């Protein structure tokens, strides 16, 4: 019988190495299934990325009872729960490593929503995961993952509360723009008997309001709006100040279909009160919403033009934001549950304090009220340059001719020419300077208004009577840059910082002898604004230039430096001549105005037709310097001077 023996055991080197590695891992307490590559943190990170991207296909998802959930269903529910915030998914950050208890892992996640107005809403949530039979970690999905107070069907919604808009204040710190009574004029469709006739009657009534509404009331789309509205709706046409409404109430109150609602709106003291400078506050328009969707919503009040537009963010403050929970009611309509998850209180706006003086502004507006042409009046306080009034007559809404106009100054610029001539010793008060009917330079003939001539008279008479030919003959004594140099001593062409746009002038320099002659009496290429001329006039009255000031708070960061003292003897002589303009010259219509008035008239040609002229008057009385401009106003004595008289007579004298 043959015998068999077992073979001797020979250990496998590969198995021996694997066993050693396993033993080492067990000794370290780490299992391959729980490594950084295969553990719950990888699943959490994938879930957070999918939450933001809207793609959870790579993530296992179960409900709290362990049933598997389709990823598309969870993506849809996250979007639904996010509600009004869905368009801007939150930033999601895992904090630390998941904590594992048996087959359940829990990790803390920071949820941070970017809300409108650069507002952040952040909170921590816990995400739970279960270790499945397939050795994979799965996210346990439930609405509380988004927020602890959410349940299935809930929606996050934003509620926005506008902050209290701050006022634009006058120089006494009182609001210029405050709630004032208005009447909202509207139409109720089911009360209209004849829509075509109603539109015609309303249009005629609105056009009868004085001063005229600028811009006018556009009724072109009223028939369409009435046709589209509910029968009992209030289709608003226009909001009128009470005083304007009272003018036309007898004409519109009994028209079939008209309705009227009393209300209050933030308004300046009068309709024309510094309107272009202040701007307006109106409901957000389509272009506002399109340009700044993160800043405005329908119904917001927005500043347009002027200071209200430029400083809108400061004045309007910050809106309040509340995140609330909504839930579908019967019929599926979302209704608030009363649960607030986050709240940021509205921040009131900051006021804008100006140097405007209500009495002076009213006097300026009143002086322009009867003027049918585009016009402007700027008044400054001589002692410190404060802008007391900036009035604009008829013209496009929002056009601030008082600050922005770029027009020739005409003979008001003889004030600047004369200062330059006096500084150079080229003229004296009583030194004779001929005033012929015409004076020719390089073939160009210059003449005086109405072709007058004075002969050889004291220079003060040439100035008072505004003799162009005398100044044309004196132009060579100023030299190529003398006129511009004199203008700069009065602040023209300066870099002013008023907190709003302003044109400070451009003075003719160099050029041909004929150009220099024309520039000596405000023609040629010299351009100014009423504000620039008011500033120059105040500098003569004060004895040195000081930049006009409009804003006290916030104060402009870079105002122009105060100028050097003007030569006392030159200024004294110039003031004497400007007083003589009123007592015995072209401004003599003002000689019986109370107080000592100083000034200079100006008629400025603005094209190649000598009959086409702007009208000017600049001057001062006491501590108030001013400039009056009338576009295409003809002779200054017929337009600008009467405006100056109305202004001075209405101006408080104390």
From TrEMBL:
GO terms for cellular component: plasma membrane. One of its GO terms (molecular function) is peptidoglycan L,D-transpeptidase activity. One of its GO terms (biological process) is cell wall organization. Residues 377-648 form the Penicillin-binding protein transpeptidase domain. Residues 163-331 form the Penicillin-binding protein dimerisation domain. It is found in: Membrane. Residues 40-154 form the NTF2-like N-terminal transpeptidase domain. Keywords: Membrane. It holds the Pfam family Transpeptidase. It comes from the Bacteria. InterPro entries: Beta-lactam/transpept, Beta-lactam/transpept-like, MecA_N, PBP_dimer, PBP_dimer_sf, PCN-bd_Tpept. PANTHER family: PENICILLIN-BINDING PROTEIN 4B, PEPTIDOGLYCAN D,D-TRANSPEPTIDASE. Belongs to the transpeptidase family. This is Penicillin-binding protein. The lineage of its organism: Bacteria, Bacillati, Actinomycetota, Actinomycetes, Micromonosporales.
């Amino acid at each position: 019988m043959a015998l068999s023996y077992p073979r001797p055991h020979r250990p496998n080197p590969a198995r021996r190495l694997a066993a050693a590695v396993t033993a080492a891992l067990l000794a370290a307490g780490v299992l391959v299934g729980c490594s950084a590559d295969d553990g719950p943190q990888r699943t959490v990170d994938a879930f957070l990325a999918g939450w933001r991207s809207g793609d959870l296909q790579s993530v296992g998802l179960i409900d709290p009872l362990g049933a598997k959930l389709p990823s598309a269903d969870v993506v849809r529910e996250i979007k639904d729960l996010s509600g009004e915030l869905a368009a801007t998914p939150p930033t999601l950050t895992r904090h630390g490593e998941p904590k594992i208890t048996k087959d359940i892992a829990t990790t803390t996640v920071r949820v941070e929503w970017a809300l409108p107005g650069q507002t952040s809403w952040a909170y921590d949530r816990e995400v739970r995961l279960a270790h499945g039979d397939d050795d994979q970690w799965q996210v346990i999905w439930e609405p509380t993952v988004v927020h602890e107070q959410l349940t299935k069907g809930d929606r996050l919604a934003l509620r926005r509360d506008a902050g209290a808009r701050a006022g634009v204040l006058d120089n006494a710190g009182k609001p210029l723009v405050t709630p004032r009574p208005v009447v909202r004029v509207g139409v109720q469709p089911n009360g209209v008997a004849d829509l075509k006739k109603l539109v015609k009657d309303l249009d005629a009534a609105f056009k009868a309001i004085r001063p005229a509404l600028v811009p006018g009331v556009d009724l072109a789309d009223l028939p369409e709006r009435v046709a589209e509205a509910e029968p009992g709706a209030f289709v608003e046409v226009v909001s009128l100040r009470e005083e304007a409404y009272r003018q036309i109430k007898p004409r519109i109150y009994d028209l079939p279909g008209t309705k009227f609602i009393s209300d209050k709106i933030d308004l300046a003291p009068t309709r024309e009160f510094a309107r272009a400078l202040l701007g307006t506050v109106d409901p957000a328009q389509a272009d506002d919403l399109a340009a700044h969707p993160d800043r405005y919503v329908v119904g917001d009040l927005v500043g347009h033009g002027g200071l209200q537009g430029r400083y809108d963010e400061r004045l309007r403050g910050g809106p309040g934001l509340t995140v609330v929970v909504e839930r579908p009611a019967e019929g599926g309509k979302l209704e608030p549950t009363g649960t607030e998850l986050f709240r940021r209180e509205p921040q009131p706006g900051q006021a804008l304090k100006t140097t405007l003086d209500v009495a002076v502004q009213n006097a300026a507006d009143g002086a322009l009220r009867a003027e049918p042409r585009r016009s402007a009046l700027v008044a400054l306080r001589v002692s410190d340059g404060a802008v007391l009034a900036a009035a604009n007559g008829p013209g496009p809404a929002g056009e601030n001719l008082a600050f922005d106009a770029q027009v020739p100054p005409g003979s008001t610029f003889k004030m600047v020419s004369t200062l330059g001539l006096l500084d150079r010793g080229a003229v004296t008060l009583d030194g004779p300077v001929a005033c012929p009917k015409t004076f020719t330079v390089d073939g160009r003939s210059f003449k005086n208004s109405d072709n007058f001539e004075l002969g050889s008279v004291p220079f003060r008479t040439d100035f008072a009577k505004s003799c162009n030919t005398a100044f044309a003959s004196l132009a060579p004594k100023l030299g190529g840059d003398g006129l511009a140099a004199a203008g700069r001593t009065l602040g023209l062409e300066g870099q002013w910082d008023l907190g709003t746009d302003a044109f400070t002038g451009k003075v003719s320099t160099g050029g041909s002898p004929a150009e220099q002659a024309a520039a000596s009496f405000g023609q040629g290429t010299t351009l100014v604004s009423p504000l620039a001329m008011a500033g120059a006039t105040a500098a003569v009255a004060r004895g040195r230039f000081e930049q006009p000031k409009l804003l006290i708070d916030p104060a402009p960061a870079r105002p122009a430096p105060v100028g050097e003292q003007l030569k006392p003897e030159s200024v004294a002589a110039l003031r004497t001549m400007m007083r003589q303009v009123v007592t015995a010259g072209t401004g003599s219509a003002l000689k019986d105005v109370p107080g000592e008035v100083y000034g200079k008239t100006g008629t400025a040609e603005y094209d190649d037709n000598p009959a086409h002229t702007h009208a000017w008057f600049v001057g001062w009385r006491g501590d108030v310097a001013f400039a009056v401009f009338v576009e295409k106003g003809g002779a200054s004595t017929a337009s600008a001077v009467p405006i100056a008289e109305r202004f001075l007579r209405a101006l408080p004298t104390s």
